[in-house]
């Protein structure tokens, strides 16, 4: 009886080991980083994971998160970043059937990719234009000597205009005796005018009296 029990225990253990072996070999994680065409490329492949429950995967580049997703049986993805700067990728996988990572199905791996390409060199500034040099040529100017002669200046005589000392004639004011006296030519018209004026007044008075009557 004891032997039968021992045999049953050993057989059960073998069955458990054989049953777990395919499951262990089924989980195949792959994380690869490198340079491709001057860019930093990270490839993550998770194959044959147990899809009866959800598994999770996250990818970060330094402080920047570039992936955080759940998957079932398989996960394949490639990430391409600039190759002019280095990258520190961290891939974290959590399998539901290996929560503590004892079997290696759950893990956290860091992949460093150095610079893949140098940044483009900016074009050189255009060369300055050549300096323009100027040449000054002095042309001698011919001068003709002029004859120096003697000139005689004639000073005109001085003329002085003195005021005349002769006394001015005195004009005598006209008196009453010098005024023209009215003659007969002036008296006759005045008398006739007075007579006509008086006659007109008399006629006017007579006409008014007749009109009143």
UniProtKB/TrEMBL annotation:
Keywords: Membrane, Signal, Transmembrane, Transmembrane helix. It comes from the Bacteria. The keyword Transmembrane applies. This is LPXTG cell wall anchor domain-containing protein. The keyword Signal applies. It comes from Saccharothrix syringae (Nocardiopsis syringae). The chain crosses the membrane at residues 186-207. Residues 1-26 form the signal peptide.
